[in-house]
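Onboarding guide, step 5: your first structure request.
Type a short instruction followed by the sequence, for example:

Predict the 3D structure of this protein.
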Amino acid sequence: MAQKPEDSELKRLNLQNLQKQEDKSITEILGNASHTTLYRFDNNSCQWDRVGVEGTTFIVLADTAPVARLIVLNKLGG
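The system replies with structure tokens like these:
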């Protein structure tokens, strides 16, 4: 299925933003999720606890190790 022109433009802008703010070696966005919340499992209480990381997630390729990466743009600033 072909991407809509606006989808490819958004992907290009997201790639430019990641290269500028995160790492210039990022070469491609493989996938993304518009919102992610990170949890940690507490074995003592047998419950999941939020760890203060929420935001857009990208799965990317880069030309330096590690070549496959998962990046969460944390909107909570923690």
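Each response can be followed by summary notes, for example: The mean pLDDT is 92.
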